[in-house]
Amino acid sequence: MAKIKENLESHDDHSLRRVPDSDKRPMWQVLVVRLGFFACVSQLMLGATLGYGLSFWDAFWAVMFGSVILQIIGFGIGYAAAKEGLSTALLTRWAGFGNFGSLLIGLVIAISLTGWFGVQNGVFALGIYEATNIFNVQIWSVITGLGLTLLVVYGFKVLSYTANIGLPLFLIAVGIAAYKLLATADIGSLLVSPAPGTALPMGVAITMVTGGFVVGVVTTPDISRYVKTWKDVFWMTAISTFVGELSICLIAVLMAHAVKSPDVVTIMLSLSGWIGASIVLFSTIKTNDLNLYSSSLGLTNSMSIFFKKNFNRATMTIVVGLFGTFMSVAGILDKFIGFLVLLGVVIPPVVGVVIVDYFILKRSRVVLDESRRNNELPRQSESWNPISIVAWVAGFAVGYFVTDIGVSSLNSLIVSGVVYFICMKLFGSAITIKKVDSGISIPK
Fold first, then answer.
1. What is d(CA 347, CA 73) in angstroms, rounded to the nearest whole number?
2. Which of 91, 190, 194, 290 has its CA 20 to 30 A from that of 426?
3. What is the pLDDT of residues 212-247, one digit of tens each?
4. What is d(CA 68, CA 63) in angstroms, rounded to the nearest whole number?
C-alpha cells in the first residue's frame, strides 16, 4: 500500500503547484499533444457537416474565422499559464475568481470532461466490439475505460507517448482515404461547386467551429504550463489550431462535396480498410486521455479547496476514470449530452474574466511575480470575488440565449470580460474581498 501511494504521488504532475523550469518541455513535445487533440475524428465530422451545407470557400472562411478565434483564446490563456506554470483551474485562483470561483470552475471542467470521456469511451468500445464481435460493448467499455485511466495516471509523459504514436497514424489513415476518394474527382469543380445539402448560415457554421473545441482551448493551460516562453505558446497554439482545425476540416469539406453526403467518416473507413479503421479508432485515445487529464486537474483543485487538504492528481484520475467508465458501461451518458453541451457554454466566459484580470487589471500580478521567483505560490488568495461571478453568469446568459447574433461562444467570452472590467472599475474599490490562507491546500 505504501508503494502504491508513493507511486501515485510521483505522478502528481504539479497539480497544486507551479511547474518548475526543470520540468519544462521542448515546444514540439507539447505541440504534438495539442495537435493530437485537434486532429481527430470529430474534426472530420465537423468538416463534413460544413461541406454539406456550404460551398468550399464559404466553409474555408468559416473554419478560418473560427480558428482565429480559437487561436486568440488559446494563446491568451496559454501564455498566462506558461508564465505562471499553472493549470486552468489553479490559474483562476489568482486571475479574478478566488478560491470559491476556482472551486466552481474546477468542478465544471471535471464534470464536463469526465462526461465526454465516458461518451468517447463508449464510442471506442462500440467500435472495437463491431470490429471483433468478441464479448459485448459493456465489457469493452470496462476494458478501454480502465486501460485509459491507468495510462493517464502516469500524467503528461503518457499523453506525449500516445500522441506521438496516434497522430502520425491518424494523419496517414486520413491521407490514404482522402486520396482514394478524391483521386478521380475534379478538384477544380469541387472548389466552386455549391453546397450539396441544405444551406448552413455562416454564423451557425462559425459557432460550430468555435463551440466544438472551445472547452479544449480553455484547458490549454493544462499543457501549455509545460512550455518555456511566449513564443513556444504562440507556435504551439497556432500550428495545432490551424493545422489540426483548418487542414482536417477542409479535407472533409472536399470529401463531402465529392460524395454529396455529410457521412464521410463511414465512407472513409470503408475506403481505408480494417487497418485504417483501426488506426482512426485508436486515435480517439489521444483525444480522450487529454479529457481525463484536464478533468483530474480540475477535480484536484476543487477538492483541495473544499476539504482544505492536498489531493493527488493521479488519485483523482482513478476517481474520474472509474466514474466515466461506469457511466459509459451503464449506457446513460447519451441522455446527458445536452447537459454536457450546456456546460460547454458555461466555460468560455471564464476566459474573458481571466484575460481581463491577468493582462489588463493585473490585480494579483505583484504577488504572483514575487512568489514565482522562489517557484512558490502566493501565500494568500481571495476567498471569492462576487464581480467575477456576476460577469461569468452574464457571459453565460448571453452565450446561451443570444444565438442569432454573432458567434455564441465569442459573445459570451467578450461579454464576461467587458462586464468584469466595467464592474471592477465602478465597484471594485467599494467591495471588501476577504483574503484566505492558501498554504494549507497549495504546497510550495
1. 12
2. 91
3. 677 778 889 999 999 999 999 999 999 988 888 888
4. 9
